[in-house]
């Protein structure tokens, strides 16, 4: 039994892969069925049909052979095959009595048309075929018009139309399900790629913030140590100690950030929390040690959501780094973080005058005052202000940066307390005039 079923399965797969051979086999089987049916005479109304009671005429055999041969092309030209088989069946009803079952080929052709076209076409063609063949059987047949053979023509052609339409609907339904599944798979892949890109951007932004802050402080303190090494060795040692602390902090933060790239479950992946306003005092202390006076006014620093807390910390870190680099000697900075309704406002002010570059910014002669190491304004291609803008707008907030009236520079960020990550940047969210980047 298993061998027989596997043989049928192989034959079915072969026929599906060779549709013309399948149609030829179907045409041959239909011809055999029509010839066998032509040997059967209808009953007298009180008994079943009698097989062998009559012999088909040669002309009927010829028509049956033509109709069966037309079925070989039923997939390629379904409408033409239906027209040929219906015409042959009508000729059989008109000329022969009793007629041979040439209409069997028309039933198969009508099923093919219904399964390969749309429903309106099936209705039109099916009704025309059903009505035409039934009328020919009723008008030209020797039996009364109300005989069951005549109504059988109507029933079989109608059944073929309904079956073909049902098969077409099922195929369309299966194709729609398959297309939705493929589209859902593509959507999942695109979503995964989008999340990977966002995570890479976030990690790159964090790396920039860490390098911008700590390397700038290391550079400043190393310059101080080199300047006073011969005359004031104690001060040089103190500057080198600050260099050591800043480099250690940079390594720790880099270890935390790069740890995000490790595989899940890696025991070496760090678990330290991301920096936030809770450690703002330590951040400000590093700038004070580097010679930048900073005043801080911060309220409710422990009540902000994690994403908002990190964004506020990074904005302050980036702004103070650029004040230290570009505001010039004698500059002072002010930092404030306040809650205003459903938002948190972060402001960083300085009174710097600048020391290098063209005198077009608020810090006279300064390069960009908002940026990181190597941020040399528009020509320098820095990414500090761009990173701040992206970080703030990703939460649905706004960022403005520009010169202050009377000198200095101002960075102002408004962050919603309920972070809305992944929203597109809206026009004007990072506006401001006189941007130093």
Give structural notes.
This protein is α+β, with helices and mostly antiparallel strands and 437 residues long. Helices cover 59% and strands 9% of the residues. It is built from twelve helices and seven strands. It has helices at residues 2-17, 19-38, 58-70, 78-95, 103-116, 119-140, 148-228, 233-259, 280-289, 306-326, 377-380, 384-394; strands at 40-41, 50-51, 294-298, 333-340, 343-350, 398-403, 409-416. The strands form two sheets. The chain has a five-stranded mixed beta sheet with strand order 3-4-5-7-6, with helices on one face. Strands 1-2 form a two-stranded antiparallel sheet. Strand 6 (398-403) and strand 7 (409-416) form a beta hairpin. It is rod-shaped, with a radius of gyration of 43 Å. Residues 263-271, 355-382 and 421-437 have low confidence and may be disordered.
**Alpha plus pi helix count:** 12
Beta content: 5-15%
Basic shape: rod-shaped
> What is the chain-wise order of helices and strands?
HHEEHHHHHHHEHEEHHEE
Helix/sheet category: alpha+beta
Summarize model confidence as the mean pLDDT: 75
* Distance, first to last CA: 80 Å
Rg, alpha carbons: 43 Å
Strands, total number: 7
Residue stretches low in confidence (pLDDT < 50, at least 5 long) are 263-271, 355-382, 421-437
Largest sheet: 5 strands, mixed
Proportion in helices: 55-70%
Strand arrangement, largest sheet?
3-4-5-7-6
Entry summary:
With 437 residues, the protein is of the alpha+beta class. 59% of the residues lie in helices and 9% in strands.
């Amino acid at each position: 039994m298993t061998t027989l079923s596997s043989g049928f399965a192989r034959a079915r797969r072969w026929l599906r892969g060779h549709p013309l051979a399948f149609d030829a086999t179907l045409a041959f089987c239909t011809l055999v069925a029509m010839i066998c049916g032509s040997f059967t005479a209808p009953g007298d109304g009180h008994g079943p049909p009698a097989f062998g009671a009559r012999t088909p005429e040669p002309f009927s055999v010829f028509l049956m052979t033509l109709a069966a041969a037309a079925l070989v092309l039923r997939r390629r030209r379904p409408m033409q095959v239906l027209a040929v088989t219906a015409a042959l069946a009508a000729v059989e009803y008109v000329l022969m009595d009793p007629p041979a079952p040439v209409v069997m080929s028309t039933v198969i052709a009508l099923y093919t048309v219904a399964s390969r076209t749309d429903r309106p076409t099936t209705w039109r063609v099916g009704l025309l075929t059903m009505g035409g063949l039934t009328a020919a059987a009723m008008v030209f047949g020797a039996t009364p018009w109300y005989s069951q053979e005549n109504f059988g023509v109507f029933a079989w052609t109608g059944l073929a139309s309904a079956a073909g339409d049902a098969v077409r609907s099922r195929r369309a339904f299966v194709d729609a399900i398959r297309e939705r599944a493929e589209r859902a798979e593509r959507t999942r892949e695109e979503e995964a790629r989008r999340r990977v890109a966002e995570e890479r951007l976030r990690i790159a932004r964090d790396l920039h913030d860490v390098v911008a802050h700590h390397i700038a402080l290391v550079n400043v303190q190393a310059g101080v140590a080199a300047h006073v090494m011969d005359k004031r060795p104690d001060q040089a040692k103190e500057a080198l100690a600050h260099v050591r602390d800043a480099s250690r902090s940079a390594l720790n933060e880099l270890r935390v950030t790069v740890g995000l790239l490790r595989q899940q479950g890696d025991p070496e992946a760090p678990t330290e929390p991301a920096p936030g306003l809770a450690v703002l005092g330590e951040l400000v202390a590093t700038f004070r040690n580097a010679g930048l006076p900073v005043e801080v006014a911060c309220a409710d620093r422990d009540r902000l959501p994690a994403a908002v807390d990190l964004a506020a910390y990074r904005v302050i870190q980036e702004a103070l780094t650029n004040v230290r680099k570009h505001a010039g000697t004698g500059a002072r900075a002010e930092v404030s973080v306040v809650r205003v309704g459903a938002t948190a406002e972060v402001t960083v002010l300085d009174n710097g005058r600048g020391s290098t570059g063209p005198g077009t910014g608020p810090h006279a002669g300064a390069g960009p005052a908002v940026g990181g190491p190597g941020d040399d304004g528009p020509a320098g291609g820095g990414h500090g202000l761009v990173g701040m803008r992206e970080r703030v707008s990703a939460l649905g907030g706004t960022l403005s940066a520009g010169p202050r009236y009377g000198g200095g520079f101002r960075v102002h960020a408004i962050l919603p307390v309920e972070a809305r990550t992944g929203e597109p940047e809206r026009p004007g969210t990072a506006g401001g005039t006189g941007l130093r980047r």
